[in-house]
Specification:
Length: 198
């Protein structure tokens, strides 16, 4: 479907661009959210009449977004979550959780779609993500996910958390002890066998 964009959309185009999009994308997202107009002679004339107003609105939205950049950059996105011994979370941290935390910590309202997380976070650690306050204003942020405040402090300090190493060491020790016992048993049996032959 051919549409005229009424606002800048990342990876699609700028205000006033005529683009070809999938019908479902146009009907379900662009048209209901007033982000585009169906391409027709009447709508081209309507867009030209509103072009200055749309561009002014776009510029104002960009300036508002630029005003929030410092608040987002300075926000401490620390999340305490339950996790297993290997560092795997019970559940995950989604873009919705990060958007909610930005509202709580920095008092910045963003939609979960503006959090460019990619895949949900499913383990303990420090993760880089971006917040798109506006198509022209994308702010990189770091999200720290841990089980305790001490782990958060370690992650912020740049330390790498290790999980399950104690158990691995214990397992190695017990394996060594088992091997030693097995060797002793074999030696004892050889002695007994030698004594019985005499």
């Amino acid at each position: 479907m051919k549409v005229i964009l009424t606002e800048k959309i990342t990876k699609l185009g700028n205000i006033g661009d005529t683009v070809e999009v999938k019908t479902g994308f146009a009907r379900n997202f662009l048209l209901p959210n007033n982000k585009a107009l169906r391409y027709s002679r009447e709508n081209v004339a309507l867009f030209e009449a509103q072009k200055a107003e749309l561009q002014a609105r776009h510029e104002k939205a960009r300036k508002d977004a630029e005003g929030k950049v410092d608040a987002v950059k300075s926000a401490k996105l620390y999340m305490i979550r339950q996790a297993g011994d290997t560092g795997q979370l019970y559940g995950s941290v989604s873009s919705r959780d990060i958007a909610r935390m930005l509202k709580d910590v920095a008092n910045v309202d963003v939609l979960s779609a503006q959090v460019l997380l990619g895949a949900p976070i499913k383990s303990v650690g420090a993760f880089d993500t971006k917040i798109a306050l506006h198509p022209d204003v994308v702010v990189p942020v770091k999200v720290y996910v841990a089980r305790t405040n001490d782990e958060i402090d370690a992650l912020v300090a740049g330390k790498v958390l290790t999980f399950g190493t104690k158990k691995v060491e214990e397992n190695e020790e017990s394996a060594e002890k088992t091997a030693e016992k097995a060797e002793e048993v074999v030696a004892d049996k050889k002695e007994e066998a030698a004594q019985t032959q005499e």
